[in-house]
Specification:
With 421 residues, the chain is mostly helical. It has 16 helices and four strands. The chain has a domain of 292 residues: ABC transporter involved in vitamin B12 uptake, BtuC, CATH 1.10.3470. The radius of gyration is 22 Å and the shape is globular.
Amino acid sequence: MSSISPAGADVAPGAKDAGPAQPPGRASLFGVSLNIRQSGIYIAFALIVVLFSVLTGGALLEPQNISNIIVQNSYILILSIGMILIIIAGHIDLSVGSVVAVTGAIAAVLMVNYGVPWPLALLITLIAGAAIGAWQGYWIAYFGIPAFIVTLAGMLLFRALTLTVLGNQGIGPFPDQVRTLANGFTDGYLGNIGLGPLGGADLFSLIVGILAVAGMAVSQWRNRSARLGYRQSVDPFPVFLLKIIGSAVVIMAIVVQLARFKNLPWVLVLLAALVLGYSLLTNRAVFGRRIYAIGGNLQAAMLSGVKVKSVVFWLFVNMGVLAAVAGVIFAGRLNQAGPTAGNSFELDAIAAAFIGGAAVQGGVGRVVGAITGGLIMGVINNGMSLIGAPSERVMLVKGAVLLAAVAFDVWTKRRAGSAAQ
């Protein structure tokens, strides 16, 4: 029996691919068929960047500002990785903001109050995050309480625990190593290289960017070859090549700007590792296929032998660990763990997942899409701040973008359903 799986997975010849590689909804642009659900988010991101670049007189794309966008939104991007997996499986997690707060508080108490060495304190904090995820995952997966209710209760419980751990006051400062992870930059290991009118740039950062582009191109080529091998539809080669070139240009443009400022932020290195690892998990690993299968058709997944309860349980354990990572990053950036840390982070993470292409009903979504959705929110926040927009206008725009993203998802499904009839 074949399973529901993403590109490159085992699919019976001639069977309909129900995994994430075949989202419904395609459109023709200049005679070329495009998957509008997959491509629309990247087109929207490009348009938003261009819009705010014009409105800010180019300040949005200054090297220091690009670095600020990445560092300031790093914890939301980390949370969005775990959130997209939970949403793909058809669940939701409303507690991640409170888990960020309580894990940051645990790390602060261990490092500052008790003098625990920072590597051991980080390990204990990650274990605490996993335990929180296991607690919630048990009630959801094995006891059968809806995730909305369990995590809503968790939002209140772990916020109360944060206040208890901190004694309703901030604790800091953190060790230099933790602050470096949250705010620091890689050293110029190979020195600078001249880039003509752009000035000097760190050679090591440029090499990392080139390797990232090469890895992305090879991965996309292998995915395309695998899809062709399973007789699945792919973009025409000119479109595929254009996507690779466009992605390479964007990546190198960002890397060059970062290399001109203070090199690569350490948190960006961490994010890149997480994105690579979780992309491989969702696209290549059996566990990733099962996540899509559960969200796409729960009954079919159970009949196919997928251990649904176990998968859901470990998804929430994973979310707890990533929330702990985000908690340490956020506390390290502020150099203090505070009682109000993580407020509304769950909303930003959920918005990033849906803006990035996740389906409300589950079964559809990509890690890279969630990261793109988070960056869209970050660019909107940063761009409107640069033009001096009031906070209420920022919230208005973010709400409108989220509603438009979900409406787009519903529209593509209706369009695909009408075409199939």
